[in-house]
Write a structure and sequence with these properties.
The chain is of the alpha+beta class. The protein has helices spanning 2-24, 51-54, 78-85, 175-194, 214-232, 289-301, 353-356, 364-381, 433-453, 465-480, 573-585, 599-614, 665-671, and strands at residues 32-37, 46-49, 62-77, 90-96, 102-108, 125-136, 146-151, 161-167, 236-237, 240-241, 269-270, 276-277, 399-400, 495-500, 508-514, 523-529, 537-544, 618-626, 632-635, 641-655, 661-662, 675-676, 680-692, 702-706, 709-715. α1 (2-24) packs antiparallel against α4, α4 runs antiparallel to α8 (364-381) and α5 crosses α6. It is elongated, with a radius of gyration of 56 Å.
Length: 716
């Protein structure tokens, strides 16, 4: 029965172990799944990869692009990519199918060619390749609204052979339990094969039995009796018998004829009641011949070896463990025994009785089965389980395969670190610091080139507004008037702070505070992106006024402040701009108390007073008008607002009767002459940055930065 149970356990164990190992090997699901995108029916210049694709499987996505020619992959916010694409013809990868084996796509009709998107300020990074490009996605900043724009040059078709690889859930939670349970079953099977428990004695003590075959049993008994007799035979001295060990002194005498004397084979020791006691060590009572042999064999099989304690049924006490007795009456007589000297035989096997009753040898098949079970169990208790696949290492840089030659644009520089995808914060800044640093570098390089060449055409790609007007005029004046001061250079070497709008629509504005080696004072640089396909341009450059500090702004971005409402400010931006115009013109303006004392306001007043003093024969009219289109606002951290505005400072000079006005060399560069009797008008660009505090502070408006430069003059 135990063997059958062991076999069943071994089979079950092997099946469980095989199932567990199979789950981790043969039946192990693939580590990754690859989805492919269907190509559009008609070639398109742009391909957009939607955030739904990039955010699949927690952003653990690797994309492979294939194309016959060179192409680029740009990273940007979804709204920025959508803004740049506009109404152009394009394909969009909208997401993955439920089984992650197919990329869902959509196609939009529109113009078949667009300007080259390469190098746009909208892109956080840009990579390129030829033939095939493997791109491992990693979000470059906070939020999960990032997208990719894939293109060639705006005219050639964009790559549409795109595949998306994502990690697959190939966990096998039942593999280890199956292997453990299988190993346990194999161990139990091995134990059942190798270990046979002792048979429990019946009734606490088992009755001794004789062999069932009188011939074989008697020979065995007589042999043992003879051996015992020789050892325990009483010694005689001069005809006196010495009692054997365990025999009472008053016991029966040994027969005089010597028949069967003590110590002789086949001898018997008669008792007083006429029965014969056989002093057999470990003799078995109650059975004859074959029954005794069967009992001995069973005892040996069960580990007993025939050594159960026996008891003596005779009237006299024999030695411990040697007191034996034949059955009462005359059931066993010398006439039933084989002849002395015959070897004891086992009737069934023909082998020596003592050999037959020893422990039987374990069969070779059983031993091999047990060994195999132990080996399998030993290997299954601590199974070697393959580690769960890890997700592909995130990388923001694409790598080309060996079959292609890839080129990559420079990655964004700066201190911005790449972060994992997260829920977008309300009012996310439209530029990362890395983008802003790259933009400032491009602006500074462009302005430096124009300053060195004194050529305003060099500025067109990166300069506009009052910044362009002032530098264009400065170049012109310096080309004809030696010693005329140059404008301070635009620096990007140290970004002190910045205010970046969170306004998603266009135009967008950003202000950066920088200071270079050649800048004695920090500069406030205001940049504007007019449309999605335009790059940021420097529209205003002013120096921080002495004694002023730049207000604190939120690092997550500065929301624009409506210009027409005060929104909890001491003045609305529009009212503050108008009030400053009045203050700059009138020394007794009603708005004067609304502004802190400012070196800028004082400088304007002093300049106007000096012109009047030096022009006694002329009538002068001053004006300071703000351009509404130039107004930019940024919320500050304390609830206030920064306001950027470009003013035009006009000086209208009309000579009195018969007077002739002399024109300075700087103005003469624009008028073409140095004298006039009709009068002339000079125009200055006057960029201003002011801070409007919250109404709760009950504070005054502060002029943070300002500048002035001659930009034109003309005769009346």
């Amino acid at each position: 029965m135990r063997s059958k149970i062991a076999i069943v356990l071994a089979i079950v164990g092997l099946l469980l172990l095989a199932a567990g190992i199979g789950q981790r090997t043969v039946w192990l699901p693939p580590e990754t799944l690859t989805a492919t995108a269907a190509a559009p029916a008609k070639a398109v210049p742009l391909t957009v990869v939607d955030p739904a694709v990039l955010n699949a499987k927690d952003g653990n996505v690797t994309l492979t692009f294939r194309s016959k020619g060179a192409f680029q992959v740009a990273v940007g916010r979804e709204r920025d990519v959508a803004g740049w694409v506009g109404d152009a013809s394009h394909q969009t990868l909208t997401g993955l199918s439920d089984d992650s084996r197919q990329v869902n796509t959509s196609t939009s009709a529109g113009p078949a060619t667009v300007p080259n998107p390469s190098g746009s300020d909208m892109w956080v990074s840009q990579d390129g390749g030829t033939g095939e490009l493997t791109y491992t996605w990693h979000a470059p900043g906070h939020g999960n609204d990032w997208a990719l724009l894939v293109f060639s040059d705006g005219k050639a078709p964009a790559p549409t052979d795109i595949s998306v690889t994502t990690p697959n859930d190939n966990s096998t939670p039942w593999a280890v339990p199956l292997m453990v349970f299988g190993s346990i079953a194999l161990v139990l099977a091995a134990l059942l094969f190798l270990i046979r428990p002792k048979a429990a004695p019946e009734g606490g003590r088992r009755a001794a039995r004789q062999p069932a075959d009188p011939a074989a049993g008697t020979v065995a008994v007589d042999k043992i009796v003879a051996a015992r007799g020789r050892a325990n035979a009483p010694k005689t001295i001069a005809g006196t018998r010495v009692p054997a060990r365990g025999q009472h002194d008053g016991g029966p005498a040994v027969p005089a004829d010597g028949a069967g004397g003590p110590g002789e084979p086949g001898s018997h020791w008669p008792h007083a009641d006429g029965t014969t006691s056989i002093p057999l060590a470990g003799a078995v009572h109650g059975l004859d011949g074959q029954e005794a042999r069967t009992k001995r064999a069973k005892d040996n099989d069960s580990g007993n070896n025939g050594s159960d304690d026996t008891h003596h049924d005779g009237p006299d006490d024999g030695p411990d463990d040697n007191a034996g007795g034949g059955p009462t009456g005359s059931g066993a007589t010398s006439g039933d025994a084989p002849k002395p000297g015959d070897a004891p035989k086992n009737e069934d096997t023909g082998k020596s009785f003592f050999h037959a009753v020893s422990r039987p040898a374990t069969s070779r098949k059983v031993r091999w089965g047990a060994a195999v079970a132990v080996v399998l169990a030993a290997g299954g208790i601590s199974p070697a389980v393959a580690a769960d696949p890890t997700t592909p290492a995130a990388s923001s840089t694409a790598s080309s395969t060996a079959s292609s030659t890839a080129s990559s644009t420079a990655s964004p520089t700066g201190t911005a670190t790449q972060a994992t995808t997260a829920a977008p914060a309300p009012g996310t800044t439209v530029l990362l610091d890395s983008q802003l640093t790259r933009i400032l570098s491009a602006v500074a390089t462009t302005v430096g080139t124009g300053d060195n060449a004194k050529n305003a055409k060099e500025l067109d790609s990166r300069v506009a507004g009052s910044a362009l007007a002032m530098r264009t005029a400065n170049y012109k004046i310096r080309s004809q008037v030696s010693g005329y001061a140059a404008l301070p250079p635009v620096a990007n070497t140290e970004l002190l702070t910045r205010a970046v709008t969170t306004q998603p629509s266009w135009p967008r504005a950003v202000m950066a505070v920088t200071q270079g080696d050649k800048n004695p004072l920090p500069q406030l640089l205001t940049l504007v992106q007019a449309t999605p396909r335009d790059n940021y341009k420097l529209v205003q450059a002013t120096e921080l006024l002495p004694g002023q500090t730049f207000p604190k702004v939120d690092n997550q971005g500065s929301a624009p402040v409506p210009a027409g409402a005060d929104n909890g400010l001491v003045l609305s931006p529009n009212n503050a701009v108008s009030a400053l115009s009045d203050v700059l013109v009138k020394s007794d303006s009603k708005w004067k108390a609304s502004f802190k004392d400012s070196v800028f306001v004082k400088a304007v007043a002093d300049y106007q007073a000096e012109l009047k003093k030096t022009s006694p024969d002329a009538t002068l009219v001053f004006s300071h008008k703000a351009d509404p289109a130039s107004l930019r606002t940024f919320a500050t951290a304390d609830g206030g607002a920064l306001v950027v505005a470009d003013y035009t400072f006009g000086v209208d000079i009309t000579p009195k009767t018969d007077a002739k006005l002399q024109i300075g060399p700087e103005a003469a560069v624009f008028t073409g002459g140095k004298e006039t009797t009709k009068g002339f008008v000079q125009t200055f660009a006057e960029p201003v940055v002011m801070y409007i505090p919250p109404a709760a502070d009950k504070a005054q408006v502060t002029i943070v930065a300002a500048g002035r430069g001659l930009v034109g003059a003309q005769f009346k």
